[in-house]
Amino acid sequence: MMSEYKGIGIGKFIMETSNEDFNIPHLHFILLKEKNEDIQALNLEFGLVCSGHVGEEEFVIENLADMTTMFIKSTLNDAEGFVSFKKLACSLALEEFWAEYRKIEFTLAEKKRDLGSSVIQHIKDKVTQAIFEKYGIKPTAQFSIINKDVA
Hints:
The protein has helices at 57-76, 82-91, 95-110, 121-135, and strands spanning 5-15, 27-34, 38-43, 49-53, 139-145. By secondary structure, it is α+β, with helices and mostly antiparallel strands. It has a five-stranded antiparallel beta sheet, sandwiched between helices.
């Protein structure tokens, strides 16, 4: 499955839940380039996917943030609430993609970089504002593209 893609970036969404009795754990995603030059952003906890073309990373990440936020709100409104949310996150096995995420994370660390050190600020600001306006949730998006020439 991972053999069809090349990991070109990683990231995470951090959701503020000050009006809830719980926290939402950091939610991770990987930016993948397909052999046909399309890209996908894959949420590793829930398997949510957004697609686009090379050069549309901002659009793809923003859509993934939107989809993830909508999914969280919907799941938390379920009868089981947080229990259902936790079950879903713990039941999905995407180990090949998690392995690629960790590979990129260590490649960045080897170059003294991490998610916070190379955030593309305009994309971060746009994602944060769009989610806040739509859902009243203020996420923090952190991500890094490992090789801008590849993306």
